Records
---
Amino acid sequence: MASGEGEGWEAVVRAEVGSEWWDDPDGADLRARFKAFTGQRSDWPQPKLLFWKDLILRVARRLRLCSAPAHLVTSAWFARPGGLTPLCLPQVLEEMRADGDILLKSELNDPTSGNLYQLVRRMSQLVVISRRPIAPEDILVFKSLVEDRSADIVRQLSDSHWTSTCIVTISKFNSFFLDQEDAYAALCYLVQFGKARYFVAQKQDTVQGVKFALSTTRVTAVSKLDHDALHLVWTEEKLQQQLDALDRRWEISRRRALASYKSGDKQSAYRHVKQSKLFSQSRRRCTQLLERVEEVVSLIASADSTKKVYEAIRIGIQAMKEKNISIEEVNIHLKEIDELVAAQREVDAALESIPLHSLDSEENIEEEFRELEAELQDEIPPMQVQGPVSHANEEAPNEAIESLSDNLSKVKLEAI
């Protein structure tokens, strides 16, 4: 991978861990952290294990990676002069794999394969009980980093798409990642966990695309409308690339025409002016085509949303028929709900309109409590003793009232 075979990771590691102990290969702190784990799993030092797990993810995030070959993580990222490497990293990677922090790309389904192959592969993975250890040539897929990148893609696509799904070409999807290999590893994860779908539109040109979910729900199956939308999106990208190229050539022709005119070469200036006019005409035609394609793409998105709304209405009507509910009953319930909502809003408005200074003072409130106490005492009927009463219920009415009065008098009312 580009990020794993060039310069950069050593500076990233130094920035993450600090240069105090990293630049001292003979230091006790560095050698203690580079030692292998010994004994049983329960005897491993937990701070050391968490240190390496967190550092691996932080370095990968700084390098903008979602995946990396295992041999680079264990032998290159943290290598020190003299060939000194952390001997505990293979065990750390196995722990991260057991915790679900990393997955092997070889264990993920190939999104470009058929549905039958993916089903057979999943069934075979369920049968396998024991897992082989991580090999140096394995590609590690960092789960949390893929999900973070996926959330970032959703945020970017949501700015220009108002539907629950978005269709992009494979080149557009790859542009969100550092390189094509990293994008493919992330695509394997997203497809396997239902957050994206890979498909190919077969027309005059074979176009690869990805249907991406812009919500937390699983992405829906690919439809014929999605194939048409992918081909239009691909055409839109091609037209935009052509328009950008025409813009550059138009600007170059204008500059050359001006330079030739200033140098006195009127024939060359005339030729460049003519070329710039031809480029301008091509730009105009390309812009018109691009606008038409964008309009069709928008119409397809609207049609898809209309189809979903129609489907929801159809399901609602079917449910009403099954429950023997008429439209009139639904309208009555909706009207009652509207009236309740309106009444609640009036109550809320009335409560908000009460000024704070209208609240009585604490002395007035206590006076009201005493009057309430007298009223309650007059209304309580005389107690008829029918026999001995247990000690737990010996409290007299007057004592209960006094206790209630004392408790209420201690209540402190505050402005809401």
---
Amino acid sequence: MNKSQKIKVLVVGDEWVKTNDLVKAVEQTLQGYQYEMDCFDVIMDKPMSRDRKEDIGDDSITEYCGHPQALIERIDDVNLLVVHTAPVTKQVIEAGKKLIAIGCCRSDAVSVNIQAATEKGIYFFNAPGRSVEPVSDLTIAFTLLLGRNIIKADQYVKAGRWDRDINRENPIWDEFVTFRGVTFKNKKFGLVGFGKIGKRVAEKAAGLGMKVMVYDPFVEEALLAKYTKVSSLPELFANSDFISVHIPPLPENKGVIGRELLGRMKPTAYFINVARGEIIDEAALIEALQQKQIAGAALDVYYTEPLPSTSPLLKLDNVILTPHLAGQRVDVSAGSAELLAERMQPFFQESSLQTCFNSKEIEKRKNSSSGR
């Protein structure tokens, strides 16, 4: 990049990643440049819901906030677009006639049509790994909460039943003994997916003395040297004591875990999902929990978010529910923006494509069109 070129920037923040933090990331990225910046916010209106009614003209955008028209109206002369959850559709990209680069401070940039950007030769930067630690932490926390019956035990004490049952002439231990938990050493922890988050979960589960089993047909054997690789999902589900899902929300993964796989689980096994709700057949999981086919589950994601007040999950005592907070950490805004800045800086400061998500595909297209 030529620093004599004046850069026009559009920054779109939201309630999770503040515009001010994105502005700081841009200022850090564009040191030495002259630039002009326009900013606005989008409202975070159910970003993870799959039941949106509006048609934004681009089916590849599955999780987003706001409407693309707000970007289209501002993007005419923009060279650098920086967003979090704002929808960067193919129409937005087509309207950005002078776009050079797009930065999105998400790991799975499902709010950006990366293919459309690549076809236009627009470089794309994301924030890989921003949620690795908090998501893997929550996965292990769920494992401990489920295996040790901590939520139920907490409710038992707060409701005064511990005092009532034990502080009497003939103590009653019936409910107390139901809180006895498993020991985690040598328990089999099954992982569906071995990306950045799955790998970190495996390390933490192994730290508890658990035997980690992994199903991921795309991972090289060498990367699984410390763990047991299984050849199929049925094998993983049949043999695990805990199962945790860490695969992306791709079309081919929708409903991949359904009644057949859940039916293979041990009645003493637990199921954890902190990935995406549409990966699971939610109705089949509810049925398995209602009928006590499995010991329990912990869910941070759902097919429809927020979880409707009519959901049967709310009436079950063998499931832990949290409001899609796995990636939420106290510094989520500043941390995400800083990570994106680190990815964009080499491009703008050193003309390096090392941290660009789609640079290889763009260069391949350039070489193909030039006949090389």
